[in-house]
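Hi all, long-time lurker, first post. I run a small reading group and we've been trying to get comfortable going from sequence to structure in the token notation. Rather than ask abstract questions, I figured I'd post a concrete chain and ask someone more experienced to write out its structure so we can walk through it together at our next meeting. Sequence below, copied exactly:
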Amino acid sequence: MSPPTFAFHHPPPPAAPRNGDPDLQPPIDPPPGTAVSEADYWAHYYEHDNGYEWNNGILEVKPVSDILTLQIYRWLLRLLEFYLDTHHNARLTCLEFGFRLSLPNKTAIRKPDLGLVLDSNAQPLQDLDRSYRGTFDLCVEALSDSTPAEIRRDTEQKRDEYQAAGVPEYYIIHHDPRWQLFYRRNAAGLYEPIPREDGILRSAVVPGFRFRLEDLNCQPSLETMIEDPVYAPFVLPSWQRDRQARAQAEQLVKQERREKERERAKNVVLLAELAKLRGES
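-- Answer (accepted) --
Happy to help. Here is the structure in token form:
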């Protein structure tokens, strides 16, 4: 029996000796802004507890979002999981799963808070992958607004990077609707805001996936969504069909019971008339 095949990260370029000393080890917990090679990033920092990203030779740490924004993130993730449970046409990655962006002016390694790869993507996402070797079909970032620089990172820097890398749709989520931004690449390869019809955002990349913008903050319950025509087509449709089948079966039982009761009442009347006729004879 042959051993399993493991999918490693992107093959990094050869590591250069540090200060001419090949035995010098990289720092264990370097601060953001530390310069490291791509080879050292993949070898030492891609799976680091600090959640480093790599921006053209510089380590960057992903900032933390607030609780309200994380609640939106979890609701949107759950909605996408419901969609995929129904359509089975894509796979999701979360948080520490990165991909390499080879851009015209630089190279970066980013870890979107949520990434989606369609099964039709030219580079499928494999079961044993620890990083994605292609370009995501959808990236989602949960915005941190602790500093202006953190806001610019998602709204400007990553937007430009994902646009140049060819990510078809890019969503920025935040508890403040002013920072809820949704982009789609146009025919020229540039991001433009996704049109909203009746307050509903519809993905052109993920067929049939949609949500009300106000629901990002309202976060309706599962019980509400299965009754909502916006979500009903992909939120537990099999459960809805089973429920309808049970309701129809219960209705049939009630109808049969009513027919039996009518038949019983009819028989009672007939027996009474028969008894009356016998008494008169």
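A couple of things your group might point at:
The mean pLDDT is 88.
The chain has three domains: 26-61, 63-235, 237-281.
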